[in-house]
Amino acid sequence: MNNKGFTLVELIVSIGLISIVMVFLFNLLGNVKREESLNNSKNTDSLNRSMIIRVIQNDFIELNLRSVNTCNVGEVLCYSFYFLNGTTKQLIVNKNNIIYDNEKWLLESGEYTSNNSVYCTNKEYGDNYYLKIFIPVINSVNDGKVRDIELIRIGKLSEITTFNDITC
Question: Which helix (H) or strand (E) holds 44?
Fold first, then answer.
């Protein structure tokens, strides 16, 4: 009798083992793909956060901020910034995006919340004022990184016409 071939049982066992290994590999590949997509969303959100802060801070400095008004309509938060040259720009915060001066940034890996948003000014620093606008982000995945938006402006009281004086 020649024993050089595979038996049917050996063939079924090898196909079963290969199938189990393939299932684990496909699951691993799916997890890696989801992780990559989530990381891309987080990176995009971080870049957008930096752009928003840079654009608004530049306007505060270059256009010389004169006053700020706020409004809340449901879950939509808005700020109107009035500048020395007479221009007005609005910051509108929705759950999934921020619009500033007709430019829109989407948030892919979480949502903005107006519930814990902080807007405060403080005029107790001699002839200086301190303005802080804080817009928190609720992340879909908590990885310990901060994606909140915080705008700060420090300037001379003589530059400001009106502020809602909400102490920080």
Answer: helix 8-62
Q: Which of 136, 135, 133, 137 is nearest to 168 (CA)?
A: 133
DSSP 118-137: EEEEEEEETTEEEEEEEE-E
Q: Are 82 and 153 in contact (CB under 8 A)?
A: no
**pLDDT tens track for 118-141:** 666 666 666 777 777 888 787 766
Contact partners, residue 16, CB within 8 Å, separation at least 6:
none
How far apart (Å, rounded) are the C-alpha atoms in residues 108 and 17?
A: 40
The span from the CA of 6 to the CA of 23, in Å, is 24
Helix %, strand %, coil % of the chain (to 5): 35, 35, 30
Q: pTM here?
A: 0.70
